[in-house]
Amino acid sequence: MSVQLMVRPRIKEIFGVLLLARRIRLDAGEGYAAEIGDPEGRYRRLVVLLDGSRTIGHLKDELRDVLTPREVDNALHELDESGYLEDAVEPDMSRDELEGYLDNLSFFDLLGPMGESKYRHQRSLKQLRVGLIGMGDIGSNVAIALAQLGVGVVRAVDFDKVHFSDPNRQGSTSAVDELEAGVSHLRTGFDTDFAASARRIRWAEDAADFIDDAAPHVVVCVADKLDGFINRWVNNACVDRGIIMIAGSVAAGIGNAYSVTPGRSGCYNCLVAEKRAPKFAQELSCTRGSDFNVANGAAGMFHAYFLVYEMLRLTLGIAPPLTFNRLFEINFVTFEQHFTEFRKLGHCKVCGTASDAADDRS
Q1: The pLDDT of residue 289
Q2: Which of 55, 108, 201, 222 is geometrically suited to a Cys-Cys bond with 138, CB 3.0 to 4.6 A?
Q3: What sign for the dihedral angle of Cα 11, 15, 16, 20?
């Protein structure tokens, strides 16, 4: 957004202002954000007046004895380009929402120029629908993170385990009981419309039916029985419907994650295609019926929040996604990280097209 379109510019509330001798510092301490040279003291008045109570025209009028209108424009432009300004227009959010999502808004405040409105990001999250497949160690933490972010609607599915640290679920005797206890836990103190169903995904049709029922903008797949077949089914359904998919697992202390953006990135089938990764494809074909998505403790929580942050990158565009055409792997013992590149294959039977195939052969 152009500075000229601001209504009432102000220094972002996350930045403290120190007026020092011959310089202005934004934020205090060793890790301060920036320092602006001001040997004549002409710009400190501008910084003081940037409290969100004045329009740009009013600022120019009040500063005309020390700064020209052009100097005011240039200073505002530099501050905005550096990510220090925001517009103080009243957000269309309730006081409870502003207080409840204060941490989110402070985080969004860091993301760049004023055009990246922190309120716009929060509103986008409120309108977002997420389908969550799996409510084990990773999935339950994903659900909590989505609720904390203020995601509008979450529809989840699992068939046997829900891992919430909630005493209300003690004594549960069935998957339905545990899911209901987990849902009650999430509904306490959060605005997210959260619902879960206890059912198995045994076939491709089951995955497609869940996605159709959930009508999500993005699907997060962290199913406990991550034997490759569920990922294939979810991948195919998401590609067919143009829905973003993010998937992850943790096994033997190693976490992995990837994403699929239909029409732009490669898909799961491209990732495991024999042409690109024959060893991985061979191993995957032998794992049906195994239960190797066993996350525990901090690893599951860490990986869940990584997946949710990647969802923010993909849906809000706050930063380039880390998993676009890349498989991310992390060793939770050493915290070593590795990326494996893959690409959209023209001959892919799931996401390829005739034109893609021609490009793939060139």
Answers
A1: 43
A2: 222
A3: negative
0.70 cut: is pTM over it?
yes
- Residue 52's identity, in one-letter code, is G
In tens, the pLDDT along 3-58 reads 555 788 888 888 888 888 899 988 755 665 778 889 998 999 999 999 989 999 99
216: buried, middle or exposed (CB in 10 Å: 19+, 13-18, 0-12)? buried
Structural domains present in the chain: 3-87 (3.90.930.60), 128-360 (3.40.50.720)
- In one-letter notation, the amino acid at residue 136 is G
Q: What residue type is 98 in one-letter code?
A: L
Q: Which of 153, 175, 149 is nearest to 163 (CA)?
A: 175
Q: How many residues does the chain have?
A: 362
Around Cβ 103, how many Cβ atoms within 10 Å?
Answer: 10
| Nearest Cα residue to 97 out of 117, 116, 123, 115 | 123
